[in-house]
Amino acid sequence: MRYFEDTVTNGEWDEVEKYLSGFTKVDDNRYSMKIFFEIRKQKYLEALDKRDRAKGVDILVKDLKVFAAFNEELFKEITQLLTLENFRDNEQLSKYGDTKSARGIMLAELKKLIEANPLFRDKLQFPTLKNSRLRTLINQSLNWQHQLCKNPRPNPDIKTLFVDHSCGQPNGARAPSPVTNPLMGAVPKAVAFPPLSIHGPFQPAPATLPTSLTGWMANPAPVPHPSASAGPIGLSAPNNAAILKRPRTPTNNPAMDYQTADSEHILKRTRPFGISDEVNNLQVNILPVAYASQTHGQSSYSSDDLPKTPVMALNQGSAVKSMDFHPVQQILLLVGTNMGDVMVWELGSRERIAIRNFTVWELGARSMGLQASLTNDCTASVNRVVWSPDGSLFGVAYSKHIVHLYSYHGSDDVKNYREIEAHVGSVNDLAFSYPNDRLSVVTCGEDRVIKVWEPVTGNLKFTFEGHEAAVYSVCPHHKENIQFIFSTATDGKIKAWLYDNLGSRVDYDAPGRSPTMAYSADGTRLFSCGTNKEGESHLVEWNESEGTNRFLAAGDEFMVKFWDMDNVNLLTSIDAEGGLTAAPCIRFNKDGALLAVSTNDNSVKILANSDGIRLLRTVENRTFDASRVASAAVVKNSDNRTLVDVKPRIADEPVEAARTWKLTEISEPSQCRSLRLPDNSTAMRVSRLIYTNSGLAILALASNAVHKLWKWQRNDRNLNGKATASVVPQLWQPSSGILMTNDMSETNPEDAVPCFALSKNDSYVMSASGGKISLFNMMTFKTMTTFMPPPPAATFLAFHPQDNNIIAIGMEDSSIQIYNVRVDEVKTKLKGHQKRITGLAFSHSLNVLVSSGADAQLCVWSTDGWEKQTSKFLEVPPGRGSASLADTRVQFHLDQTHLLAVHESQIAIYEAPKFERLKQWFLPREATGPITHATYSCDSQSIYVSFEDGSVGVLTASTLSLRCRINATAYLPPNPSMRVYPLVIAAHPSEPNQFALGLTDGGVHVLEPLEMEGKWGTSPPVENGAGPSTTSVAAGSEQAQRRLTETLLGLELGGIWGLRRMVSNCFIVFL
Q1: Where are the alpha helices (DSSP H) in 173-287?
Q2: 320-544 sits in which CATH class?
Q3: Where are the WD repeats (predicted)?
Q4: Domain boundaries, the chain
Q5: Is 916 helix (H, G, I), strand (E, B) or coil?
Q6: What is the tens place of the pLDDT at every residue in 715-724?
Q7: S-S: 287 plus which of 66, 275, 551, 630, CB 3.0-4.6 Å?
Q8: Distance CA 140, CA 138 (A)
Q9: How open is the CA angle 569-572-575, to the nearest 5 degrees?
């Protein structure tokens, strides 16, 4: 320790890390990560303190970027320090003293971390060694080398230790060294992160994999692992990769078996879990949370934390093959069966709200092989169902050639999206991934091939060939911006692929056949299962850094078994009151409070712990959502199959529900949670309003060109520091006291059209108020630059979704300029509108920009060549006046395909890029004021609409039905002398039931429903049309029948492995 202390005190950072690397690596565990982070952060701060920006950038990119994958927000904040003249302007670093004192403080912290790190135990003091210890080690090494000789002599003559020993061949030739000896296979040297080339049969790689990935691939060394069965493993994380291992080197002398240092480390972390060998279809899952009462070092936990109490059973009609929970909507459970049925259950009401049967949408366009197989047997089993990460798409992999993709828009609004004939024979697995920030679908099949598809077009992007047996599973993942896919085959082979056409980078034998590999929810702990050719079953944790998940569950022996993930001993097991299959399919919810388990009577049981039971009771006490009653009707879907009653309710219930539904009216402050944000500055109307992308702050732009920023602090009442109506935030200003104020030279404030846009990392805001466009630093409020003086003035701003340096600027003269901030030039100018631009929205999946103008025209532009693709004017019914008298705003749904168009007279939903109008809602004639603004909720399931009479309406996005009206009296004090109403409305980026209002009196209000309610009202039944206070342009018996049909057409959802996706992307509430 003394040597370490001296090097830290002297700032010899390279030597400090070199010395530490002999004991630990940055990703070994959380203590090691913290140690390396503190050292590199200090090196970074010292460079900034010396005004050496170039060195600071170099440290940021080479040393600190590795931590971005674990705490992206912290890395962003560290990056922003580069923009400060003195990093002490940052509140958290305001007490940073001189270099010497800072090193002393850091050294004290490092000592604590080292002492707490289990990897340093028994290494802080030099051990007591026997005099013969060195001799013993040398002898063991020589004995090991002697075993590797092809022709070992009885009495070898070893003359030196400077080269590896080998006995001479009978003809005098020398045997190869142990490093290259075929017996060793591709054994890597005992170094930290060896290059990929050491594995032998790898293809040349065009790009270097990150060190962490390289390290995973370099340390394989399993032993035979008893227990556990083959079959799909499900560990929650949707797109997570696997690590690979090598077989141990066999020995010729059974009396001698010395492990290398490398294998010894691995064997300590490769742990078998006890499961019987008889079961052939094991389902495994990880409980995703660490409970507050537990510490990382504990080896056992209370079984009360586990969901074990059965609370409901849902009959599926056929054997369950796969389950998944929606990543955003927390009460939707997806189930796929062996008969090809995919069902969606709303657990709050125990209703099956949608069902899809297997059918080929375009049979004539399919291969002769598929058509022939369907002639003999028209059914197919579901192999996998899976949600896209944002829940806007879901995919289904079938046992016959086909993958179906559906778009989902909330409620029961499910539409066919894409049919892909993906493989010859069975499609064994399906996953979503994001190579190059573009959503892709990864499939594998019986034809030994892995394929990557573009979901929007259905085009094939990559084909990976090389397996010699059917590919059983795929596992996409990413590390340090490197995207890759692991695949496993039924012969036990594991391969890794980058998104290119250069072949596999890894080729290994897994411990078992038909192996499946997947990560835990936090991406740090890796498990695999499989059965080898001798029939031995394996459930193994591979060598990885410590994670935050606490429990692992497996379905086995007609039971659900639970393990503490830091202890191989069984924690507990339950039979869920009996009736489970031999190896039940299981699925945790995101919080680990609920567990879905398949049964032998074709049902799914829902188990809960105390927290889950409380959740269920909360849902029971809420108002019945009558929007689901239509699912009791009997209709025919597109393939002429008659659907039977899909929920267990009496026949006259829909009529009763329609009769009892009532619009939720909120008129009193006691009926909701509202908060007016503190502001002691001059009151000026709020022209623009937005939440930061992190959800920690709200930014407003007033009509006097001044920006205001409110930040919520982390405290006991607000543990995550996010915006809430329950805690008062701080009106934030930097220590300099400056304001972010737009240029308004020679501009009449009444004529100016304010606009702003926030960068994805919340570091910069681009803003204009009729004058020049300003770029502000959000930390210091300093103006970084100004450009584009009027005329014409900017009227709308939007950052390109893939490049913060590209901005689309809507202009007062009706043009749109595509501007590159970095090079300070206009790339192109788009013309197609007749009046000023009032809205811009990018779709990163369609690669288009949609613009709207004061002429009520919508235009679609390709972002590849910036050419105009199509345009359409809003339709206004007779007697509603001209549509060109007001602003028109546009916003994309989460699915990046459906478009919300907002006008003072109406709300409309279009499908891009063809602009097919799907739904339209008109302002009721009896309304006392027009629409002032509207926006999607963060999950795109609701639309918040503000009106000039001060009220706010909440519409269900899928039906455009008004379900809740919040009157001005609920959040504004009575003031007859002053007419106050919201001009702008903003939705919280992660809380779907929270929104903020910017008012004409300069106030900003945050509104949320009462905690006991949890949401803004309930949707009206479909039979009631659009509800009591709405007027729908498409109302009538024909649309009612269409909605009813859509309700029953059903919904196909998914989970990649039987259990793999559920933990990372799902949080559900059961009744």
Answers
A1: 211-218, 261-269
A2: mainly beta
A3: 420-463, 830-871
A4: 1-120, 320-544
A5: strand
A6: 888 888 899 9
A7: 551
A8: 5
A9: 135
